[in-house]
């Protein structure tokens, strides 16, 4: 897994308008729980879908599902059904212009997949190839094998960090494990819930200092997402904020983030065997 993931790191291009046919495999992680990675993952997926892309969001926190809550849906099936033999297409849930591959809240078995279980998960993702341009993988919190393995399988990794010491420490720990175990050579960083541009700059500066000193991999800044109470309102209504209130500060920032990442991320068809494995592209 690590050897394959190491082939996926290449430099992208500058910011361009969203390409609704570009194939992407992006993992959103953050080390610490509660930093907003699930919110960013869902809104990233919806922003791409609004441009015309066929997008599937994968709840990679397999035993602690929450993406369905952000989408306001109550799935009747989950990844547990896929592992029991159900076709992955039968488990997908359409919502707000995207499809969700849901997890199962409170499943100890899904939260602790072994190597064979993770291989079966990647096999299920392979089955989505004909239907979608992009996968957005929302990983579990922490640096467990499941979270790190799923993030390392993606063509690009987005690390979400809030401007607080614990979040920054955990974000660095996440980047460290990704670099050492999955041979990730580039991460994108999103400062989230920031009060000012200076606070966003501080998040990036602190992480870059540590990464440059101890890891030597590339840290790419993405647009920050400001503190905005509308995010909580949208979550309470089961709607992505980019649909709930498109003109609020958080929505505008998330659309900028989607556009920036679209321009910078490595297209799947050009990045090697594991991305091809996930989305059926040519290696």
Walk me through this protein's architecture.
It is a single chain. With 283 residues, this protein is α/β, with parallel strands linked by helices. It has one domain: P-loop containing nucleotide triphosphate hydrolases (Rossmann fold). The protein has 14 helices and 9 strands. It has helices at residues 2-5, 37-50, 67-71, 79-83, 88-91, 108-111, 115-126, 145-153, 165-181, 197-214, 230-236, 241-244, 249-264, 273-279; strands at residues 24-29, 55-60, 93-95, 98-101, 134-139, 156-161, 186-194, 218-221, 225-226. Strands 1, 2, 3, 4, 5, 6, 7, 8 and 9 form a 9-stranded mixed sheet that branches. The protein is globular, with a radius of gyration of 17 Å. The two termini are 15 Å apart. The model is unreliable at 1-16 and 270-283 (pLDDT under 50).
Labels describing this entry:
Rossmann fold; 283 residues; single chain; 9-stranded mixed β-sheet; disordered C terminus; disordered N terminus; 14 helices; alpha/beta
The CATH superfamily is P-loop containing nucleotide triphosphate hydrolases
Query: What's the overall geometry?
Result: globular
Radius of gyration: 17 Å
Can you tell me the CATH architecture? 3-Layer(aba) Sandwich
Main sheet? 9 strands, mixed
Q: Beta-strand level of the residues, as a percent range?
A: 15-25%
SS-derived structural category: alpha/beta
Order of helices and strands: HEHEHHHEEHHEHEHEHEEHHHH
CATH topology: Rossmann fold
The low-pLDDT segments are 1-16, 270-283
How many angstroms does the end-to-end distance come to?
Answer: 15 Å
């Amino acid at each position: 897994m690590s050897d394959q993931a190491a082939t996926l790191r290449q430099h992208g291009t500058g910011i361009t308008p969203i390409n609704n046919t570009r194939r992407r495999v992006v993992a959103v992680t953050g080390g610490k729980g509660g930093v907003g990675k699930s919110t960013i993952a869902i809104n990233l997926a919806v922003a791409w879908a609004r441009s015309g892309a066929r997008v599937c969001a994968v709840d990679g926190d397999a035993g602690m599902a929450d993406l369905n809550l952000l989408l306001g849906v109550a799935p009747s099936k989950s990844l547990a059904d896929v592992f029991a033999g159900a076709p992955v297409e039968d488990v997908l849930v359409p919502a707000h212009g995207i499809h969700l591959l849901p997890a199962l809240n409170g499943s100890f078995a899904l939260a602790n997949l072994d190597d064979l279980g993770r291989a079966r998960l990647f096999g299920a993702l392979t089955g989505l190839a004909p239907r979608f341009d992009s996968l957005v993988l929302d990983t579990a919190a922490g640096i467990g094998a499941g979270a790190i393995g799923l993030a390392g399988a993606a063509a690009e990794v987005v690390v979400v960090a809030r401007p607080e010491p614990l979040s920054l420490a955990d974000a660095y720990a996440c980047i460290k494990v990704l670099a050492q175990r999955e041979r990730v050579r580039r991460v994108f960083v999103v400062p989230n819930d920031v009060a000012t541009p200076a606070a966003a700059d501080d998040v990036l500066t602190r992480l870059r200092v540590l990464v440059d000193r101890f890891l030597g991999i590339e840290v790419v800044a993405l647009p920050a997402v400001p503190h905005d109470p509308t995010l909580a309102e949208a979550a309470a209504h089961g709607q992505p904020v980019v649909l709930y209130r498109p003109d609020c500060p958080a929505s505008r920032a998330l659309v900028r983030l989607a556009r920036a990442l679209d321009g910078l991320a490595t297209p799947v068809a050009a990045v090697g065997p594991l991305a091809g494995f996930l989305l059926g592209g040519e290696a």
